[in-house]
Amino acid sequence: MKKQNVDSRPAGPKPWYDPRVRALFFQVVSLAVVFWVGWVLIDNTLSNMQSRGISTGFGFLGESAGFGIIMHLVPYDATMSYGRTFWVGLTNTLLVSAMGVITATILGFVIGVARLSSNWLVAKIALLYIEIIRNIPLLLQIFFWYFAVLSNLPSPRQSVEVGGALFLNNRGLYLPAPMTQDGFGLVWGAVLVAILAAVSIRIWTKKRQLATGQIFPTFKVSAAILILLPLVAFFMAGQPLEWDFPALKGFNFGGGITLIPELVALWIALSLYTASFIAEIVRSGILSVSRGQTEASKALGLPSGLTLRLVVIPQAMRVIIPPLTSQYLNLVKNSSLATAIGYPDLVAVFMGTTLNQTGQAVEVVAITMAVYLTISLLISLFMNLYNRAVAIKER
Amino acid sequence: MTETMIKPPKRNLGPVKWMRTHLFSSWYNSLLTLVVGYLLVTSVGPLLNWVILDATFQGNGPDDCVGAGACWLFVKQRLNFFIYGFYPDELQWRVDIMFALLAAAFVPQFIERFPGRKWLGIFGMTGLPVIGYVLIPGGVLGLEEVGSSKWGGLMLTLILAYIGILASLPIGVLLALGRRSDMPIIRGLCVVFIEVWRAVPLITVLFMASVMLPLFLPDGVSFEKLVRALIGITLWQSAYMAEVIRGGLQAIPRGQYEAADALGLGYWRKMGLVILPQALKLVIPGIVNTFISLFKDTTLVLIIGLFDILGAVQSTIADPAWQNVAIEGYVFVAFCFWVFCFGISRYSQNLERKLDTGHKT
Question: Which residues of B touch A351 (CB under 8 A)?
Answer without folding.
Answer: 204, 207
